[in-house]
What we know:
Layout lengths: L2 E5 L17 H17 L4 E4 L6 H15 L3 E8 L8 E5 L3 H19 L7 E6 L5 H5 L4 E8 L3 H31 L1
Parallel strand pairs: 1-2, 1-3, 3-6, 4-5
Antiparallel strand pairs: 4-6
Helix pairs in contact: 1-5, 3-5
Amino acid sequence: MSVxxxxxxxxxxxGAVSPDGVLTEYHVSLRASEACWRSLSGEFAAELxxxxxxxxxxxxxxxxxxxxxxxxxxxxxxxxxxGPPGAKxxxxxxxSGIGMDAATFVCDALTSGFTNSHHQMWPRRGARLDxxxxxxxxxxxxxxxxxxxxxxxxxxxxxxxxxxxAEAYGILVATGIKRWLKGHxx
Length: 186
């Protein structure tokens, strides 16, 4: 398998919530992850993993166990940052090695896609090394990245996500992964 896409959070531990209370990070991640998986599946072996209705105390373990049992070339989680209401940058976090290359390709695809869709005011923070000890990144035995492409706490970005943006976000992530896989396999 080339890529395992793990849906962020779970159906009962849903992560951040949009300012209007309509969107949860889990539902955005699910839609974006499904779009990413569909986009990859035509060209590369890819799996979509949703841990189901697990509490926060269990879902990280389930995700890491699935990744480590499959041993993909790359493990990916698509998130939506939560932060101050006006926050709007995008970043991709990695652990080490070729994870940095994959993170850079995905970040480039997000920057290009946001600019092309007239969201150039959503600045790039870049690919950066995990300095927080994020469980998913630290416990997987393969290159892994966490994509924090948008802020669900930002009204403008939440509105975009609610109207087809989640799917577009997932396709942008897939674009970066495809570029990385093509370069990585050559």
